[in-house]
Amino acid sequence: MSQIEWVQDWNARIKSCTNCGLGKGCAVGGVGNIEAPLLIVGEAPGEDEVLQGVPFVGKSGKDLREIFCDVGLLPEMFFLTNSVQCRPTKMGFKNRLVNRAPTKAESLACFPHLVALLDEMKPTVVLAVGAKATEAVRSLAAPKGFQLVSITHPAARYRMSAAKSEIAYLEMIKGVKEAKYLSGIIQRPNSPGVM
Ligand code: SF4
């Protein structure tokens, strides 16, 4: 089986998974270059991700992709997924389903999909976006032999004051540059020529 076929099979397994109560047509899975040295792991897909079937395409995903673009991290340099593969929801205003953070039980139920991806991809670096993603991958760093870089989830910035949000933004850029550098993709962050 080629690695492209493996990703297709992995995504198919996720789409038919019933390991927890989320499933039911809201699975997204992952995209990107599985031969790249860098795996980027978010928390869970939101409404936009489910509609498009692609991770990191909602508001916070777009913010993150802008940072990748700014630091010269091209799509072929990484694989993108989430620590929980289906969209967790709760009832919001006017009976509209809104996103929520995954529960511990949902994270545990989805853990085998992440482990399978790590075993196949063997990334040099995992960039975890947000606390939930960091929690999911932290215990795997030593046994799987990757370096872990964590950054703030872009959505967390929306609740911060302007000053704190700016600091968080700069820290996110620093983290993405570090992940890129540790992956062996570029020279040391902040060296001349690196945005
Ligand atoms: S969130 Fe994960 S464990 Fe739960 S149904 Fe979706 S793929 Fe399966």
Oligomer: single chain
Question: Which runs of at least 5 residues are low in confidence (pLDDT < 50)?
Answer: 191-195
Bound small molecules, deduplicated: iron/sulfur cluster
- Number of extended strands: 7
Question: What's the architecture, going by CATH?
Answer: 3-Layer(aba) Sandwich
Radius of gyration: 16 Å
Give an overview in words.
The protein is α/β, with parallel strands linked by helices and 195 residues long. Helix content is 44%, strand content 14%. The strands form 2 sheets. It has a 5-stranded mixed sheet with strand order 1-3-2-6-7, with helices on both faces. The chain has a two-stranded antiparallel ribbon with strand order 4-5. Helix 1 (3-15) runs antiparallel to helix 4 (104-121). The termini are far apart. The structure holds iron/sulfur cluster (SF4). Residues 14, 17-20, 22-23, 27, 84-86, 106, 109-110, 113 line the site of iron/sulfur cluster. Iron/sulfur cluster binds next to helix 4.
